[in-house]
Structures are given as C-alpha cells and as structure tokens.
Amino acid sequence: MTNSNERAFLWRRFTLREGILLGFCATFIILARAGLRLHLHLPGHVMFFTMFFFLLARGCVPKIGSATLVGLIVTLASFLLGMGTKGPAVFVKFLLPALLVDVAGYIFPSFVNSMVACVLVGAVSAAVRALSDTWIEWLSGMEGEIILQKTIITASLFAFYAGLSALAVPSIIRRLRRNGLIDQGTDELPEQRVSVP
C-alpha cells in the first residue's frame, strides 16, 4: 500500500514509488521491442506488449498522466537508442496511444477493473496508432485504394493484439491490490488522503 508519508516529486504529481513503477513499465516496453520481437511478419504484434504495459501503468498508478509519462519515456529512449526507424514520427507512435489511455482514465477512472473496458480502450488506442502512419504513405504517393486496404488490415491487427493483451490487465491489477502492492485506485496525492484510526 502507499505510505501516507510519501512525497510527490514528479510535477508534484507522482511519488518516488509511483515513478519507479512507471519506469519499470517503460523499461519492459523497450525490452519487449528490442529483445522479444517476434518474427511473425505481421504488423501490429509489438502492440501486444506496448498496450499491455500502458494499461498496466494506468492501473498501478491511477493518476492522470501516468500512461503518458510511460509513453514519453519510451519515446525518448527509442529515439536515443535508434529504434525509431521513422524519425520524429516515433513521438506519435507511443505518445498517441498513451494519451488515449489517459483520456479514457479521465472519463472512466476505473476502466482498468473491467475486462471489456480494458479491451475496448486497448483496441481503440492501438487502431488509432495504426492510422497515424497513413499520412506518411499518402505523402509518399501511394494510391488511395492501397492505403485504405493497408490501413484497415493494419488497424485490425493492431487492435487484435492490443485487445488480446488487455484481457490480462484487470486480473493482474486485482491481484496486486489484494496483496497490497499498489493502492486501491484513488486518484489523489498521498498528502490528501485522510488516515482512519
């Protein structure tokens, strides 16, 4: 459980423990991309790991900006490690789905407790991420019909893998809360919590 004496230090929003949890999620996304990349020759399979840890970050640290911070760390690390093959477009690659997870958390704070909501948020975020590559193909002069077909297939595969990984998130969050490893899902700073004797 969160210690009431912990101090928020990241933008006066996240405690040290929460920052470490988010850092672990970002690290696992990088490791998944670098070492666990499956050679399936199918677009979108990397989203299995990416969306899983975005959703897990939101569930472990239920505060606005948690998933976005993970996306920012992954973006900067990918850019510095040369993993972004599309240059500055790598910022959209990770920040866009992370922002959508945080938007979903703002509208429906407890969505990580629902398997259906997790799958829906993960699938939609991944599909929108797939759509972000369309403008690159359009600028390269690809025919509109080919772009449309490729976008539909890519978005469907992205959504499939993301939804598949999201199925496990609610049960993992419940297990972590049951064992007292994370808090119970409040979106408050530790100093604002009132301890009950």
Notes on the structure:
With 197 residues, the protein is mainly alpha-helical. The chain has a single domain (8-37, 45-181), classed as Arp2/3 complex 21 kDa subunit ARPC3. The chain has helices spanning 16-35, 47-60, 66-80, 90-107, 115-131, 134-139, 144-166, 169-178, and strands spanning 8-10, 14-15. The protein has a two-stranded antiparallel sheet with strand order 1-2. A hairpin with a 3-residue loop joins strand 1 and strand 2 (14-15). Helix 1 (16-35) runs antiparallel to helix 2 and helix 2 (47-60) packs parallel to helix 8.
Task: Please trace the helix and strand order, writing H or E for each element.
Answer: EEHHHHHHHH
Q: Structural class, from helix and strand content?
A: mainly alpha
- Main sheet summary: 2 strands, antiparallel
**How many independent structural domains?**
1
Give the helix level as a range of percent: 55-70%
Numbering strands along the chain, what is their spatial order in the largest sheet?
A: 1-2
Number of helices: 8
Runs with pLDDT <50, length 5+? Answer: 187-197
Count of strand segments? 2
Named CATH topology: Arp2/3 complex 21 kDa subunit ARPC3
Mean pLDDT over all positions? 81
* CATH architecture verdict: Orthogonal Bundle
What spatial form do the alpha-carbon principal axes imply?
globular
Distance between the termini: 16 Å
Cα Rg? 18 Å
What proportion of the residues form beta strands (DSSP E)? under 5%
CATH class: Mainly Alpha
